[in-house]
Design goal:
alpha+beta, globular, 5 strands, Alpha-Beta Plaits, single chain
Amino acid sequence: MNYLFTFVSTHHAMKAESYLKKDNLPYRLRMKPRTVSADCGLALDVKPEHITRVIASFDRRGLSGFTVYLPGDEPGDWRNVPVEDIRGSAEMGSEGDENRLSGP
């Protein structure tokens, strides 16, 4: 179950993609699902094991204007995951323990 990043603008999405390329972090650029509300039609798909490193990459460069989602219980449904929760969980656990964030 991958995380979905949406952005406030195409510019933000392209910046995010360039940061992940520079940091050699895996992701998939995709179209934003219709059921997700965002100003930009692009989204990034990120595996759970990379989520804290991706957010750290954005934080180091001051990138804001993104929202993180996980698939919801119903097909096509997405639920918002507060970035602060991901950051806080990463601080409490070890660097290699990001998988625990992928559950409901």
